[in-house]
Amino acid sequence: MRYALGIEYDGSNYYGWQRQKNVISVQESLEKALSKIANEPIEVVCAGRTDTGVNATNQVIHFETDKVRKDVAWTLGVNTNLPKDIAVSWVKEVNDDFHARFSATARRYRYIINNNRLRSAILSSGISFCHFPLNENLMHQAAQYLVGQHDFTSFRTVHCQSHSPTRTLHHCNVSRQGEFIIIDVKGNAFLHHMVRNIAGSLMKVGQELKPVSWLKEVLEAKNRCVAGITAPSAGLYFVDVDYPEEFGIPKRNPGPLFLL
Predict the structure, then answer these.
(1) If you write DSSP's letter for every residue of 38-53 in order, what string do you get?
(2) Which whole-number Å values give the CA distances from 99 to 10, 183, 240, in the listed order?
(3) Cα(231)–Cα(111) distance, rounded to whole angstroms?
(4) Catalytic-labelled residue, pool 10, 51, 184, 240
(5) In whole angstroms, how far apart are CA 71 and each of 7, 33, 68?
(6) 133-143 pLDDT, tens per residue?
(7) Is 51 labeled as catalytic in the residue annotation?
(8) From CA 42, how far away is CA 2, in angstroms rounded?
(9) Which end of the chain is more exposed for a tag (fewer CB within 10 A), N or C?
(10) Which fold has domain 2-103?
(11) Which of 145, 219, 224, 217 is nearest to 192 (CA)?
């Protein structure tokens, strides 16, 4: 049997999603909890691997097991065995054609910035912070240069292992809710640090250090050195995955927190 699970996690205590030697990862923690419920070793596949410190509200994974368990075992039971900063939000039995990674048609991220003159103690983690005033309208205008199919070499880390820098962005929207700036990006796939590098570049436009048209120049340069800094990981959330309707994968509010 193959199951799909929705996973939510605060990534601040983990060295990313992927299982690694000698460091703690989200994948390892989840597999340990699932293995306890299944009473056999379980390995999972995710929709999109996240980096060190990156969060998720709607990660999707799948795993296989011959063990028959009620849905409550794969949700409440697994949550009982997980650390408090990782949680299962839903479970669904799927057919063998479903694959958390390869069946996905789009992935969506949100980067959240607390744009305030003074930092918040309550929001000291799980969110980015910028004390310089940001103009979200200019940021949104600049972000539209990134929509469509492009070579995103300027926005990927030099350590990126992807064979091709070409990706397609379906939308790249910037909005404000009170003191919070939300950068909302949806695409077919993403390069290593791509969203954080986009966020760092948009913040330069938002501070009016660069004109709106500068982002087009950065994209066309195909040179990481001309873009903005890599924004901190704390503000980044993996918030949604699209799958063909035939799989019936549940949809939840992308979040995080109060965001719709």
Answers:
(1) HTS----EESS---TT
(2) 24, 28, 15
(3) 9
(4) 51
(5) 15, 15, 9
(6) 999 999 999 99
(7) yes
(8) 11
(9) C
(10) Alpha-Beta Plaits (3.30.70)
(11) 224
152-175 average pLDDT score: 93
pLDDT tens-digit series, residues 17-34: 999 988 999 999 999 999
Q: 74 exposed, middle or buried (CB, 10 Å; 0-12, 13-18, 19+)?
A: buried
pTM: 0.94
Hunting for tokens 């919070």 — which residue is that? 180
pLDDT over 90 at 224, yes or no? yes
Using the predicted structure, report yes or no on whether residue 109 has a pLDDT greater than 90: yes
- Which pLDDT value is given to residue 260? 63
H or E element in which residue 87 lies:
strand 86-94
* Mean pLDDT value across the chain: 95
**Count of beta carbons in the 10 Å neighbourhood of residue 125:** 11
Angle between helices 194-206 and 136-143 (to 10 degrees): 130
Please tell me the class of the 106-238 domain.
alpha beta
